[in-house]
Amino acid sequence: MTVNELKEILENFDGEMEVKFSYTAPDYWRTQVAADVNDADEGYVKYSDYHRMSKVDEDEDEDSERVVLLS
């Protein structure tokens, strides 16, 4: 998703609504939980075979992609 796509989605919501990040907890029931979003920063990620998804890349090597990280 790009920043422009995210802006387009968010413009349909009330600007006073709280924003959360939902994910599946590592519990037995695979509960959907929602964490606060407190900040947005520029960072770098690269694919991790071990995690089977992107991971934050502190080294910014040639395999890294520049992204916006919500935390």
SSE sequence, one letter per element? HEEEEE
> What is the count of helical runs?
1
Number of domains: 1
Strand content: 35-45%
Helix content: 10-25%
Give the quaternary arrangement of the chains. single chain
Q: What overall geometry do the principal axes of the alpha carbons give?
A: flat
Q: Which class do the helix and strand fractions yield?
A: mainly beta
Neighbour order of strands in the largest sheet: 4-3-5
Major sheet description: 3 strands, antiparallel
Care to count the β-strands? Answer: 5
Can you walk me through this structure?
This protein is mainly beta and 71 residues long. It has one domain (3-70). It is built from one helix and five strands; from the N terminus they run αβββββ. It has one helix at residues 3-10, and strands at 20-24, 32-36, 40-48, 53-56, 65-70. The strands form two sheets. It has a three-stranded antiparallel beta sheet, with no helix packed on it. Strands 1-2 form a two-stranded antiparallel ribbon. Strand 3 (40-48) and strand 4 (53-56) form a beta hairpin. The radius of gyration is 15 Å and the shape is flat. It starts with a helix and ends with a strand. The model has no long low-confidence stretch (mean pLDDT 94).
